[in-house]
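Form 7-S
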Amino acid sequence: MPFRPRLGLLAVFTSLLLSACGTSLHQAPVEDRNPLPPKPAASAPAPAASAAAAAEVKPPPGAENAGKPGYYTVKPGDALIRIALDNGQGWRDIAKWNNLDNPNRIEVGQVLRVVPPGVDPGAVTAKPIASAPKVESRPLDSKPAAAAGSASASAGAAAPSAASSDDDGLSWGWPVSHPVSAGFDDQRNKGLDFAGKAGDPVLAVADGRVVYAGSGLRGYGNLVIIKHNNTYLTAYAHNRAMLVEQDQVVRKGQRIAEMGSTESDTVKLHFEVRKLGKPVDPAKLLPPR
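Output:
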């Protein structure tokens, strides 16, 4: 029986040979003869994506007018009321010129027209507001009108002998009968302060139109702003009560508010004169007492 052992040995040898070959195939190194190009870094978007992202970024409204005379670029913290005051305009006018649907929503970088359309920003005109043909007049009722007469007489604001006029032909009077408690300072006090008692009358210093009556400008409390012509605005702050409405035409010496202490530690009137939006010393315009 010599044949069987040979078959057994052959089978064992064959099994060992196949096992050795299988192990060698699994451990053989693999060479990539068609390597893929390296993937771009995650922080470097593809050119097409960059172009699409750039196309989505829109410039602020009016950006094409940035830096031009008669335009203002909105800065952080700006409000339309402040922009209007600093440019000698009414906020409603600016909203209209710029087609603002919501005047409370303006964005940083937005460029606003702050002069009337068709007006040369370098030209200064001084047509009195009260004589403008499209001004809507809303006179006060009889009670405030009577009070205005007595208050005007006590302050001497409407008396012709106490009037003063400037190069724009405006006739100025005093806003209250009280003496000045704090003078003009271009850095710290952009107007005149008058100490008084709550309820004391505040008078319009010249003919004009009310372009603001409210409390939306921080630091001024209840505030009335009157536009006298295309050059001058006057502002009356910290009032206890406001006796006029926006767009109402007022006359020199008319009672427009009552002194108070809104956003102030004491009862006082803070009074400003703005010439083309820039604060100027009211004492240089008001008549001598």
